[in-house]
Amino acid sequence: MEKTAKARVFMSGRSQHVTIPQPFRFRSSAVSIRRDPHSGDVILSEGPGPWSETFAALDAANVPDDFLSLRERDRRPPARRSALDDLFAVKSVSRRKRK
């Protein structure tokens, strides 16, 4: 596959479109888009594909049963901390007053 190629950018109504050269085409009809914070480049990423591919990849990874310790597997809700509740309640009240 080529490392770089030129793509045509054009407007259609209020949307901007890019023609993607054949070697770079996606398999799916939707992709994720983000901007690199350092370079400013726009990055399009294809999702992981169907769930069957995702589960097959997990099976192929052979993750050991002891991958997470018992403490890491603890899924109980976090403990209540009234000091934090008070802190966030004050912030949300002060935000409402500014509007």
Q: How are the SSEs ordered, and which strands pair?
A:
Blueprint: E1 9-12, E2 15-18, E3 31-35, E4 42-46, H1 51-61, H2 70-73, H3 82-98
| Share of residues in strands | 15-25%
Which strand order spans the largest sheet, edge to edge or round the barrel?
Answer: 1-2
Main sheet makeup = 2 strands, antiparallel
**DSSP strand count:** 4
Computed CA radius of gyration, to the nearest angstrom = 23 Å
Helix and strand succession?
Answer: EEEEHHH
Q: How does the helix and strand content classify structurally?
A: alpha+beta
Domain count, please report it.
1
Shape: flat
* Number of continuous helical runs: 3
Oligomeric status of the shown chains? single chain
Question: How many angstroms does the end-to-end distance come to?
Answer: 53 Å
User: In percent, how helical is the residue content?
Assistant: 25-40%
Please, could you describe this protein's structure?
By secondary structure, this protein is an alpha+beta fold. The protein has one domain. The protein is 32% helix and 18% strand. It has 3 helices and 4 strands, in the order ββββααα. The strands form 2 sheets. Strands 1-2 form a two-stranded antiparallel sheet. A two-stranded antiparallel ribbon has the order 3-4. Strand 1 and strand 2 form a beta hairpin. The model has no long low-confidence stretch (mean pLDDT 83).
